[in-house]
Design brief:
381 residues, 3 domains, Thrombin, subunit H, 3 helices, 8% helix, mainly beta
Length: 381
Amino acid sequence: MTWFTASSVSVNNGQTVVNVNAGDDIQLAQESGGLIIGNNPPVEIKRTFRDGSNLPKIELRSPWPYANQSSQTAVAFPTDGDLAAATAVLKQLIEGFAIATQAQAQAGTDNNNAMTALRVKQAIDFFRPLTTSTTDTTPGRVLKVGDFGLGGIPSDLPNLDNVSKVNKFINRSGIGSVNYPDGEVYTGLNLQNGLPNLKNQIVLRGSLNGGTPSMGTLFFRGSNLTTGVFFDWQKVFDNYNILGTVSQTSGVPTGAIIARGSNANGEFMLLADGTAIGAVRKEVSGITLNPANGQGDSIYLLAGDPPFANVSPNLAKIITACEVRTSDNQTLYTELYYYDTTVGVINTGVSPSNNWPNRNETGNLIGTQVKYTMFFYGRWY
């Protein structure tokens, strides 16, 4: 269906005929259609015709009820039924359309009245006020993120042991519990389930002096289910702190897992359980070792002090990759020997004891140099 438009129409109050001064073919304005002139409400069209002077006219179903109109724009639109009847039904619907009050919107219990955008906003605003701090107890306020503990830094906690809220972060220095490094900055999380004595705490230690890594070190501890007393703090190891200085208190490791180093006595590796391993490379010259059958020449290779502080009285010394050379730098032989005291022995014959490692070899070459690596095994505590 096509709409009729006109750029200029005129009609006076009380008249039933509208003069079309300029516009579309008036046949487009259908009977029972609606006609809107200017900014006025629509009226119903009765018919269209041309007068004796062939001028286009639109006859209204009822006299024009509004103010006089001159050279106004107009639009005629078709309808599927009687405009007056449709308008009456629409008016009835509008009059029966009840908007919810602000109180009804906030209560949210009335399902009969409609909600406008304003009423929706009023209902949301009713619940919008947020808490202003972790201690804000004003009734009706919505809990803001951080005020329930996550991200908050309350200052009313004298000690981590006294944390009573679940999931509450703390920032506290100077706790001083066993295995818990002091003098730094801490951020932690307190966890507690329904059992009164079962508590767990996780704390991230940061550094005041820009230590590496900046993310700090993670500690945790739990409590005794019967007494509620906390156990000692335990440190979580990662790729940043697995290597470092090993230490212990009463046989319990308190430092890194592995330590490595070197000194004048050689290189060493220490493990958290107390195991110590060291090695030193040595060379001896100006000796005479004749491997001829039955001569039984021997040389004692001093182990020296291990490269780590040894607390075990029975430290094994192992000589490995022992290479004997002649004066013209020819390799006489290379073999592994060990002796479980403070020296190692290379023996080219059967003397002084068959229990000692020995080497029988027929030949006239004389060994004058020995290069060897001595390994140490023991404990650092």
